[in-house]
Write a structure and sequence with these properties.
By secondary structure, the protein is α/β, with parallel strands linked by helices. Helices cover 32% and strands 16% of the residues. It has 2 domains: 65 residues; 82 residues, Arc Repressor Mutant, subunit A. It has a 4-stranded mixed β-sheet, covered by helices on one side.
Length: 172
């Protein structure tokens, strides 16, 4: 069963989507207002409140992350993409906190540098913003490139991580 609720954060309200499947509860979506690829209305389930246990835990972990108190997330997540997108989203979770990678490097890590554009498309369709850290992917020259939550939010997230990451150099 799917459900959704708004979560207030310092980056603005996020739409959280959860799913219970085979007795396992997981976050399946975390979307910014104006998100590039929002979920269809019929894919988010029934409305609930932010006090739902999954959403309350998500809100608490996001708050700790956004104040620099947390660098990883323990919220159970589940994605529903095609096999290539799933590989990309899995790879995003391996980018260390406080560091960035490029679309080309991400594609090379997946097996073929020529997949950079395809990897970028999957990054742009990441359904679980922040927790699956697509904000850590930058252009080949280190410049900030598209982000479903907007470049200002991407810059905020990278700046937050750079400030907390010991010995971090310039991230972008």
């Amino acid at each position: 069963m799917r459900r959704h609720a708004p979560l207030a954060t310092s980056l603005g309200d996020l739409l959280a989507v959860g799913e219970s499947l085979d007795g396992e509860d997981a976050l399946i979506g975390l979307y910014f207002p104006g998100h590039w690829h929002p979920p269809a209305d019929d894919a988010i389930g029934h409305p609930t409140t932010a006090e739902d246990p999954l959403f309350a835990a998500t809100r608490a972990e996001l708050a700790a992350y956004l104040t620099g108190e947390r660098t990883t997330f323990t919220i159970p997540t589940r994605t529903h993409g095609d096999p290539f997108a799933e590989r990309v989203w899995d790879a995003l979770t391996t980018i260390p906190y406080g560091t960035t990678t490029t679309y080309g490097t991400l594609a090379a890590d997946l097996g073929n540098r020529d997949w950079a554009r395809r990897a970028g498309q999957a990054v742009g369709r990441n359904p679980i913003s922040i927790i699956i850290p697509c904000h850590r992917v930058v252009g080949a020259d280190g410049s900030l490139t598209g982000y479903a939550g907007g470049l200002d939010r991407k810059r905020t997230l990278l700046t937050l991580e750079a400030a907390r990451h010991a010995g971090a150099g310039r991230l972008f």
